[in-house]
Amino acid sequence: MHRASFVYRNGLSITLILLMFFSLTGQFFTGWKTENKELAEQGFPALAINEYFYSGHFIQATFENWESEFLQMMLYVLLTVSLRQKGSSESKSLLGAEEVDREPVAHPKAPWPVKKGGVWLKIYKHSLSIAFALLFLITFGLHFYGSLKNYNTEQGMKKEPLVTAIQYLSESRFWFESFQNWQSEFLAVASIVILSIWLREKGSPESKPVDMPHDKTP
């Protein structure tokens, strides 16, 4: 049998990662210019490129977005276990158990936690949501750190008192940054869940077959 190339077998993840790095690079350089423009307007020296990498401005902007993505994916993985949407390609069938619901069986090619059993299997059965939860908590913490650092930088430039992490937790600014991203992620997921009931994209696993009735759940 012909073996497909590495790029063909991993094209989706490679493309998405390249797009992420392209966008992150664009964010970095445009953010650097934006921050230096604001500093110049207030009479402060510009940040060198390496200084911007560690600035609160860049850390906050990066991780407040990553945080919302991982929260979205964690909740989506968990909610689709038990909740249904009639007619949506993103929902499990309304009736009966599916392949993903069956208990794992150890076999020669099974992942090692399945063969090991016990606590390793219990963790592995929920490893996807656990991974997204950990990534959410890490990025939430980094977003908070960057936002606090950026806020105190602005306070210092205005010669106003700095705030501690505990004090900043009660600041509306940090939670505004979080909520404005969270709501957009939930809207995006709700959109694909609902729109996939009536709309199609031939060849995409995120779509139902073109001739499938609207009210049928795959």
Describe this structure in words.
The protein has 218 residues and is mainly α. Helix content is 65%, strand content 0%. It is built from 9 helices and no strands. α4 packs antiparallel against α7 and α4 packs across α9. The longest helix has 31 residues. 15% of the residues are buried.
Concise account of the structure shown:
This protein is mainly alpha-helical and 218 residues long. Helices cover 65% and strands 0% of the residues.
Report the order of strands and helices: HHHHHHHHH
Strand content: under 5%
Instruction: Report the span from N to C terminus.
Output: 31 Å
Oligomer: single chain
**Uncertain residue ranges:** none
Arithmetic mean of pLDDT: 95
Per the principal axes of the C-alpha atoms, what is the gross shape?
elongated
Topology of helices and strands:
Elements: H1 6-9, H2 11-41, H3 49-53, H4 56-82, H5 112-116, H6 118-124, H7 127-157, H8 165-169, H9 172-198
Helix pairs in contact: 4-7, 4-9
Task: Pick out its properties.
9 helices, mainly alpha, 0% strand, 218 residues, single chain
